[in-house]
């Protein structure tokens, strides 16, 4: 099987967003069984505590922690980054959290809620953790995307518009942004010992991704996913493979599907677009001078 690895990662620190349920939970459990210190992150503390207990019980690894974050709040993401930066090291960051069918509204940060939860929050968290990841190298960043990206667009003048996107194009635009961000991240982290790869889990059964969809759409979507989707355990094993497999230690800038390198979206080859996405994202999340490691690296 392509996803099989016996690799142990004793002593490594792994952060998993969206780690309280679904494939994020399964990935966290898998990595805990390999000896890692695992920190699961999501919005709901009750679910996080239950997930922590279940992972400890299933793996016997007591070194499982949790932290809360609201990806729809830049302040909350900054608070999380500050907490995580107190760790002695971070060796793997798995950006797995995401949601579909969120209300079409602006957040208190004046960003489109769908874009903020699914992209801007992830961009900010990753950016703020890069110095720690570099200091902990070799380390890995793993970004979750999906096939909806082929229905998305990147329009910097309108990516926070209300009323422009439907459920599919809103999700697709955020996933496309994550994918292009992954490409630019790989470019900017060359020769640092930090790799950046994206994964597409196809469609996965028994996750909360459909929870915000209206009734009939949710019912039809769930029927479709239950027919063709893989289990959350299989998807979690794929993510864990990308995090732990020794043969992937230097692989970077790739898209993986079913643990194999997969043909990527054509826009990842547009270097001007990925560069502008990076700069516009820094503006959107209001990166401050004291947060900007790119400035300090070039001094």
TrEMBL record:
Gene3D superfamilies: NAD(P)-binding Rossmann-like Domain. The keyword Oxidoreductase applies. GO terms for molecular function: oxidoreductase activity. InterPro entries: NAD(P)-bd_dom_sf (IPR036291), SDR_fam (IPR002347). It comes from the Eukaryota. Keywords: Oxidoreductase. This is Uncharacterized protein. It comes from Spodoptera exigua (Beet armyworm).
